[in-house]
Amino acid sequence: MIEVTLLGTGSPMVDPNRAGPATLVRAGGQTFLVDAGRGVLMRAAAVGVGAADVTALLLTHLHSDHITDLTDVITTRWITTFTRTPLLVIGPPGTAAVVDAILDALAPDISYRIGHHADITEPPSVEVEEVTDGVVWGRDGVQILVAPTDHRPVEPTIGFRVEFGGASVVLAGDSVPCASLDALSAGADALVHTVIRKDLVQLVPNQRLRDILDYHSSVEQAANTAARAGVGTLILTHYVPPLAAGQEDAWRALAATEFDGTVELGDDLHRVEVKARPAG
Question: Which of 3, 57, 179, 230 has the most CB atoms at less than 10 Å from its CB?
C-alpha cells in the first residue's frame, strides 16, 4: 500500500485555507515529499512528519509556487538533525542552480548558526540529482520512475511514478495532456494531477490570469489523461480557483464526463490509501 497525503492543495493564489503545492507519499517505510510549496512543513507536521523524516524531496518543476518553502526544508532539515544527514533533492535540470542560489542566500544564517552551536561545523548538506527520465530510485522495495511532462514555456518539467508492493502512484505536477505522461501513468492505481476550472477561469477579466489556461490541465483534461492511461483513482489537487466548501460534487461531475473511476479531492491533509488493483 502507498499512502498519499495532499499536504498543500493551493496555487500561487494566496489562500488562508490551502497551503502551496506539496504532496506526501509514504511507502515501504520511506517518506517522499513531492514539491515544497508555501507552508509545506507546517502541513507535514500535522501528520507527524518533520524535515528530518524526509527520505527524498522530488521536484516536478521550478515554478515559484512549487519551491517557495524549499529554503525552509533545507534549513529545518539541517538544524533538526544531529548527525550529518544530506537532503536528497531529485528534480529537473536547473535544480542544482536553484539550490546553490538558496544556499548563497542563506550564507548569513549559516554563519550565525555555525558560530553559535559547537556541534554545527558545516553548512547544510544537499545532494541534487537532475533527471528527465528513467528509474531514479530503487530501495527497500520502492521504485521511482521519471518521465517528461508538458508545462511549456516552463521546461523541462517531470512527473514521478512511485511503485511499491504492486501498487503504483503517478504524480503529474503541472502539465497539459501529453504522450509521455500517458506512458508514465499507464495502468497506475492512482494519478495525482493538478487541475484548473477552465469554465471559471475563462470568465476572469484579466489576461494574465487567463494565461494559465495555456499550460495547465482542466479537470476534464486530467480526467481524460486518467481514462486513457487506465488509472484506477484520480486524485485532484492544486485547485484554481480554490475549491470552496460545497463545490466538491461540481468538480467531480466535470471529471466524470471523461473518467468513470474513483475521483478524490478535498482540503489540505486529504489522505488516500492506494492499493494494488486485482489483476484483470
Answer: 57
DSSP 128: E
Q: How many domains does the chain have?
A: 1
Residue 65 among the catalytic residues: yes
Question: Which three three-digit cell numbers place residue 206?
Answer: 484579466
In-domain check, residue 246: yes
Q: pLDDT tens digits, residue range 242-271?
A: 999 999 999 999 999 999 999 999 999 999
Residue 280 located in a structural domain: no
Choosing from 65, 69, 150, 174, the catalytic residue is: 65
pLDDT above 70 (res 191): yes
> Helix 95-105 to helix 107-116 angle, to the nearest 10 degrees?
60
What residues make up the domain containing 115? 2-272
For residue 39, the domain's CATH number is 3.60.15.10
In whole angstroms, what is the distance from residue 178 CA to residue 229 CA? 11
pTM exceeds 0.90: yes
Rounded Cα–Cα distance for residues 120 and 110 (Å): 9
95-153 tens-digit pLDDT: 999 999 999 999 999 999 999 998 988 999 999 999 999 999 999 999 999 999 999 99
In a domain, 115, yes or no: yes
Determine how β-strand 233-240 pairs with β-strand 126-130: unpaired
In a domain, 278, yes or no: no
